[in-house]
Amino acid sequence: MNTNEPQILFPFPADELWEKMRELVRAELQTMNRENKPVEYQTQGFTQKPLFKAHEVCAMLQISRQTLHTWVKEGILKAYKIKSRVFFLWTDIEKLIEKDTQ
């Protein structure tokens, strides 16, 4: 007997021990996955995203960032600052599109 190896005494073979350990870990992971599902938020009436970033507005309206900046300065489109980010309301974009089509 090698004295350097640790002695582990169980009432069943090592393979059976490892199999039981795997089963316990799998069962615990399954319960954790069931409990930690992300909450799905569904707001009634929203068909569009309410806020858009500047690059999204530029892509949507096919304009440059400089044009968007000019429109904000001239009051054509209102920008809303939240912390360090600038957003645009979908309702404002929609009004701008409707005004251009008329």
Q: Can you give me a brief rundown of this structure?
A:
Helix content is 51%, strand content 11%. It is built from 4 helices and 3 strands. Strands 1-3-2 form a 3-stranded antiparallel beta sheet.
Folded structure, characterized:
There is one protein chain. With 102 residues, the chain is mainly alpha-helical. The chain has a domain at 51-101: Orthogonal Bundle (Multidrug-efflux Transporter Regulator, Chain: A, Domain 2), CATH 1.10.1660.10. The protein has helices at 14-35, 54-61, 65-74, 90-101, and strands at 51-53, 80-82, 85-89. It has a three-stranded antiparallel beta sheet with strand order 1-3-2. The longest helix is centred in the N-terminal third of the chain and has 22 residues, at 14-35. It is rod-shaped. Keywords: DNA-binding. GO terms for molecular function: DNA binding. Residues 55-99 form the Helix-turn-helix domain.
Largest sheet features = 3 strands, antiparallel
Estimate the strand proportion. 5-15%
Q: Percentage of helical residues? A: 40-55%
Sequence stretches where pLDDT stays below 50 over 5 or more residues = none
Structural class: mainly alpha
- The Cα radius of gyration reads 30 Å
Order of helices and strands: HEHHEEH
CATH topology of the domain at 51-101: Multidrug-efflux Transporter Regulator, Chain: A, Domain 2
- Our count of helices gives 4
Spatial order of the strands forming the largest sheet:
1-3-2
Mean pLDDT, as a whole number? 82
Q: What is the 3D shape?
A: rod-shaped
According to DSSP, the number of beta strands is 3
CATH class of the domain at 51-101: Mainly Alpha
The span between the termini is 93 Å
CATH architecture descriptor text of the domain at 51-101: Orthogonal Bundle
